[in-house]
Amino acid sequence: MPRSPRLFPLLLLLLPPLAAGLGTRGAGGRRPECGPCSPERCPAPGRCAAPGIAARDECGCCARCLGPEGARCGGRAGTRCGPGLVCASRAAGTAPEGTGLCVCAQRGAVCGSDGRSYPSVCALRLRAQHAPRAHPGHLHKARDGPCEFAPVVVLPPRSVHNVTGTQAHLSCKVRAVPAPVITWRKVTQSPEGTQVLEDLPGDHVNIAVQVQGGPSDHEARAWILIHPLRKEDEGVYQCHSANVVGEAQSHGTVTVTDLSKYQAPRFPAPGDHL
Predict the structure, then answer these.
(1) pLDDT tens per residue across span 227-236
(2) What percent of the chain has pLDDT over 70?
(3) CA of 163: how far to CAs of 1, 224, 237, 252, in Å?
(4) Which of 21, 30, 88, 235 has minimal Cβ neighbours within 10 Å of its Cβ?
(5) Do 118 and 127 form a contact (C-beta atoms < 8 A)?
(6) What pLDDT does 62 receive?
(7) d(C-alpha 165, C-alpha 256), whole Å
């Protein structure tokens, strides 16, 4: 049966795409613009910031460094980000050349099996590649979020000395995960000689307490203000912090000088009647 002449134009239209596809497969999946690989023409490899994630270029020929987390990226000449990282622009829209940053595709801090907190799972994986290998899977993600730890006093309260009628100010800074509960207490002695902790402010109308998170992650600061200062406010003040893991405390001393005992005597004026 003779073939219809209408099929020839259709075959001619299909031949170029088929030929291009066959040519790509014959090149082993390489890009047409790459050409044959000539390792001797590759630039001398530099020292990679993260040697554990070195790779080949887009043509699969020359050695090239991949950007670690935080490296600049973007554009044809920009660094390619390592595995698990994406090039994110610091501006809206498409990142101009060299203005992006390699960030982990999975955001958020993680807790490693070594008990250390990592800013991302990508940082944990990179650390695992360079850490000594005790056994396969020696370092892995234990859970999402930073590792929990008991409160640590970063900045203890400093002892102060002032006179009656003025003010006294104490502060302390604590680091902990999860966030700690911070309270102020005054340390006194009972008539029997045992230590007594009085929660503040309590009934003291001249005492104010404030707690605020920050300025750094997993930190909290607490203040106590005594105004006006009285002689009976003298003593030891405790900054106590606690969370589900543990607790910590630090102390500061307030010393008060009573001005009423040091007021100069008033002599009668010449016009005063005796």
Answers:
(1) 999 999 999 9
(2) 73
(3) 118, 17, 17, 17
(4) 21
(5) yes
(6) 82
(7) 10
Q: Are strands 247-257 and 160-163 parallel, antiparallel or unpaired?
A: parallel
Using a cut of 0.70, tell me whether the model's pTM lies above it: no
Interval 172-207: pLDDT, tens? 999 999 999 999 999 998 888 899 999 999 999 999
Tokens of 191: 């008539």
The two three-digit tokens of residue 37, written as one number: 């690989």
Please say whether the beta carbons of 193 and 241 come within 8 A: no
Beta bridge partners, 210, equal: 223
Indicate the pLDDT class of residue 36, thresholds 50, 70 and 90: confident
User: What is the rounded distance in angstroms from the CA atom of residue 101 to the CA atom of residue 52?
Assistant: 19
Q: Give the whole-angstrom CA distance, residue 24 versus residue 100.
A: 32
Q: CA–CA separation, 202 vs 189, rounded Å?
A: 17
Sign for the CA dihedral angle at 187, 189, 195, 199 comes to: negative
The per-residue pLDDT for 69 is 83
The alpha carbon of residue 37 and the mean position of all alpha carbons in its chain are separated, in whole angstroms, by: 44
Structure tokens at 159: 């002892």
**Rounded CA gap, 118 and 142, in Å?**
11
Alpha helical stretches, state H, the chain = 7-26, 121-130
Place of tokens 């014959």: 26
Question: Do 71 and 103 meet the contact criterion of CB atoms below 8 Å apart?
Answer: no
- How many residues are there in the chain? 274
Confidence band (pLDDT; 50, 70, 90) for 154? very high
d(C-alpha 240, C-alpha 145), whole Å: 25
